[in-house]
Specification:
The chain is mainly α. It contains 15 helices and two strands. A hairpin with a 5-residue loop joins strand 1 and strand 2.
Length: 312
Amino acid sequence: MDEADRFTIGELARRTGLSVRTIRFYSDAGVVPPSGRTPAGYRLYDGEALARLETARTLRDLGLDLETVTRVLDRELTLGDVVTLHADALDTQIRILRLRRAVLRAVVKRNTTLEEMELMHKLAKLSEEERNRILTDFYDEVFGGLDMDPAFEQGMRSVTPDLPDDPTPEQVEAWIELAELVQEPGFRRRVREMSEAHSAARAAGQSLEVAPQEGFELVVAEQGGTAVSAGVDPRSPEAVAPLRAIVDALRGESPDTSELRASTAERFAMGNDARVERYWQLLGTVNGWPAFPSMTPAFTWTIEALRAHPRP
């Protein structure tokens, strides 16, 4: 090849916009080997070297390491395979960065301590499998060894926290609170007690689920919720009318008896727990479900009213 068809490092720098130092580094690394030298010993490069240099710059701009760039240029690796792997790696990095951003925004919102921030970051970066393992361990403890309705238990286990790749600070906060809640010994004991009661009723051929008229929960929310908002004491005479509306919605064709009211109060009490309700609210926030209002205050009022007014 004629020397006029070859380029010095300086000429390559002018043609590519790369610095002389960068081109010399690439040349020393074998990415762009020289095709010859001038009589004075300066390196010369041909058109192929110019093309390799342009490709190398593009690949480096995309984040590929120098060794991989060299193997692509030397046809040891296909560009498609390398780009696919690199794109997958970038997807992972982007997910991690989004989680970090959400954690930082949640930290600002919650005004957390350094220790709390470290815990938040640790919990937020868990993989989907690791998140589900926390819930699996919880279910194993609260259901283990009990004669539970298989459909009920499977339904519970199938609902897992699906934290999106780009979570909001609220979703990160909800997942962290959920993870802390299901690992809390007191909460586990409470859910275990509820599960044991269901198991005992199942073994006795009974059910802890009242068979109410359709929509009775809306009546509880309306009547009990209104009473709570109005400050009606569930033990007072003013509680009789809203309580009767709730019982009528609950009992269907069954008569309103003292036994019905007593058993209903016990059944409601077994399943009424603000922490259990919070568990479902947190799962809903993590998974992006529509928010639902708290029913615990209305049910608590109803339980107290049933006990205070045991006779129709």
